[in-house]
Input
Amino acid sequence: MKPIIELKNIYKSFDGKKVISNHLDLSIEEGSFTAIIGRSGEGKSVLLKQMIGLIKPDKGQVFIEGEDITQLSESEFDHIFEKCGYVFQFAALLDSLNVFENVGITALEAGEEPNKVRREVAKKLKMVGLSTDVISKYPSELSGGMRKRVGLARTLMRSPRILIYDEPTTGLDPISVRTTHELMKKTHDEIKGTTIVISHDPDIFNYADTVAMLHEGKIIYTGPAKNIWKEKNPFIYQFIRGLSEGPITLPSKEK
Amino acid sequence: MLGLVDSIGESTLSLFNELGKIALFVREMFISVYKKFIDTSKCFYHMNYIGVDSLTVIIITGLAVGSVLAWQSYIGLKRFEGTKFIGPIVFLSMVREFGPVLSAIMVAGRSGSAMTAEIGTMQISEQVDALRTLGIDVHRYLTVPRIIGTTLVMPLLSLFCSLCGIIGGYIIAVSVLHSNHEVFLQEIRKSVEIFDIFSGLIKSVAFGFLLSLIAVYKGYTTRGGARNVGISTTESVVTASLTILISDYILTSILSGA
Output
């Protein structure tokens, strides 16, 4: 398998003080389902945003299908966002628009015929397990889980080949977590694309095929998800079992 | 002493840094408009929204200022037996100065703050990033229609504010101060030129552009959380009000020389 996304020697700090990515390297293979894990505040979301150009690294290169996106100006990102769909942590639906307008926003802004867009929106909502009853509802009228599904439906409208999820299961109950993971796997298989997800939930290992662990600004482990529970890497061992003792220092023990 | 120089130097650098960022922001907007023309329905939506939103406050401001102007002019002019000039003074003050300036400050406080808060909230809740990932030009969708809408609606609001001020002045002059209503109108006709109205309109267009540019810029550059949205909103109103007053002086100097 060839890499579809490559991060080379990425360095990113905020205000020149807090280092988020410290000469980080990561390669995502085409067609893979990669779960990125790591402690809260490690900069996983920043890493994902650097991957598709929403945040520019201070140093290093990001390649998407061989193209260095760090060289692109803000107005040259259209084709990158066509390839990569991003599902935000809290869905980031536009408050002032209803579900139809949110999901169909790209097509509506491009001037497509509203009835045609409505049919397409209904299809995508069905794909993420929502009925068309929600079509005229506003984000404030939806539950957290429904909002995330609408967010995914909106991303799928552009038929991306790379799907990136930023902590899609945050704040969801265990049943909704399982359903979300199943939905992600189903979508991954349907679009035959590449999936990258940040998750803290061990259930993700049942669906992902690769795991990458971020620690202190670096990817310290990459390996198959299947045997993760047998993994002897001390960081992985401690993290997936939620142990307080180990190489990962807890905030209260940090100097 | 060195501390003072340091602080002046730092403030100057920070001012030029901010001006540079605004210039880049304006450049990005022009590139967006150049690539594909703006959806005019969005501009009309914002014109309508800002116009209707600010109308009540504009009427009250105009009436109050016009009435006070008539009173104050009467007190001064009575000493020189020149009360027949109340009409021209109210008219010229409203059309050339108070109409454009006060309506712009009111719109900055009411609609400008709403623009900053809305775009700022969208920024911190990743809605702006979401638009980008969906291939939507953020400037064409969010910022430019608001700027065009405000710039186009400001002359109308300014004229309305001036008209309300003149009506307020007329009511006070005629019914409270017992001036002759014929003289009030006649003196206005005699002393007013079309350029007086025109200069007020030029000012209101400039104020509309500046206040909306500041409002959307402050919203767009908001980072962090809810507290920062509050800070940006306050900064937006204060900066826009000061900019309106400073640019009013500059425009008055230019237009007086014209």
About this structure: Chain A has one domain: 3-93+161-253. The first strand of chain A starts at residue 3 and ends at 14. The interface with chain B takes residues 49, 52, 54, 74-75, 77-78, 81-82, 84-86, 88-90, 92-95, 105-106, 109, 154-155, 158 of chain A (CB under 8 Å).
